[in-house]
Amino acid sequence: MRSLTIAISLRVLVTITFSLYAFSIFNYDSPTSLSSSNSSSRLYIMLSFLIVLGLIHFQQYRYIKNSPDGRFVMKEMILPEFNSNDEREAIITGKAAKNALLAILILTPIALATMALMLTFEGKFPIMLTILTAASIPITGLITYYFSYRHHYLQ
Fold first, then answer.
1. How many domains does the chain have?
2. CA–CA separation, 146 vs 66, rounded Å?
3. Which structural domain range is residue 10 located in?
4. Res 134 pLDDT > 90
């Protein structure tokens, strides 16, 4: 459960830092007109994004190192605690994935309507809120998956 908590929080962080970096790209009028404060904030955001990616890579490396057969398949890259040999865990993962999909399907039209309303306004903040609203869709799915997995796991 601990590695799943770390994996979910790292993926939420990478989504947030990527959306902030995308906002910093859209924040400028042209790529040639960069002031020193704007470029330094963009550098800090990019550095934090790379640090989070490095932490994700380190967690996956530790998972490969500690796995009994030394294999690492794609589903374990996304969900580190998934063990296809354990029937109870496969059922719990299926229920959690179903709940996460339902949350994404419910949130997507709401987020798209919110983004359409925000784009009608002009200025920097509606663009940032639009990008963060788009980033909230996978974040909601990840958080729903985590809480649903934890709820079914502790029963």
1. 1
2. 22
3. 2-153
4. no
